[in-house]
Structure formats: structure tokens, C-alpha cells
Amino acid sequence: MTTATSSRELAHPERDEIRLEAVLHALSDPMRLQVVRELAEAQGELSCSYFDLPVTKSTTTHHFRVLRESGVIRQVYRGTAKMNGLRREDLAALFPGLLDSVLDAAARQERRLTGS
């Protein structure tokens, strides 16, 4: 795992350190899956403040940490904003089709549950 060298730099696992069970755990939570779905739709980076999760700020911070430490997202500071992006290339190289399958399944489930 790359270690943070300053308080403005966040630790992330290297590609070869990303584990399937950590990724599946990160994606198993509805709030974290919502974040991943929104990042996938944006096809770029979004700031933490963009997300309106129905949980406390400390819980939101926890969810982002789980996503980052599992290797699902990369977080970087840009000025005062903490920006988030999917590690789509890393995940596709390690687990081909996994992210797209999970995102597709989540979309189908949402349609089924909401009737739309």
C-alpha cells in the first residue's frame, strides 16, 4: 500500500495488493454501492461534497475510507476538495467484468424495486 507522506496525501493499495474479498465487501454496502454508481455515471472525479448520503458525516467518511482502502476508488486532494474517482482500469485488469456486472445488477435491482 502506498503510504501517505503528508496529511494531504492518502494511502491507496497498489494494483497487485487489491483483493477480491475487499472489493466485494466494499461493494456490498448500499451507501458505498450508491457512491460507486454515481462515480461510474459521472465517468470522472467527483468531490466528497457532491454526494448526498442519508448518513452522518463521520459515517460518510468511513464509507469513502472503505472504498479507498479496498482499491475501488482513488482519492486525491485538489485544492480544498477531496476528489474521488473509480479505479476502473485497475479493477478491470484484476477482475475483468466484475465492476460492470455489479453496476448492471444494481441498476436492474433498482428498476425491479422501484417498478421503473
List descriptors.
Arc Repressor Mutant, subunit A, 12% strand, 116 residues, 3-stranded antiparallel beta sheet, alpha+beta, 51% helix
Report on the architecture of this protein:
The chain has a single domain (15-104), classed as Winged helix-like DNA-binding domain superfamily/Winged helix DNA-binding domain (Arc Repressor Mutant, subunit A, Orthogonal Bundle), CATH 1.10.10.10. It contains 5 helices and 3 strands, in the order ααβαββαα. It has helices at 20-27, 30-42, 57-70, 88-94, 98-114, and strands spanning 46-47, 73-78, 81-86. A hairpin with a 2-residue loop joins β2 and β3 (81-86). α1 (20-27) packs antiparallel against α3. The protein is globular and about 45 Å long. The N and C termini lie far apart (42 Å). The model has no long low-confidence stretch (mean pLDDT 92). Residues 12-106 form the HTH arsR-type domain.
Helix-strand category: alpha+beta
Helix-strand sequence: HHEHEEHH
Instruction: Tell me the distance between the termini.
Output: 42 Å
How many helices? 5
**Main β-sheet description:** 3 strands, antiparallel
State the total count of DSSP E strands: 3
Overall outline:
globular
Strand content: 5-15%
Strand order of the largest sheet: 1-3-2
Assign the CATH class.
Answer: Mainly Alpha
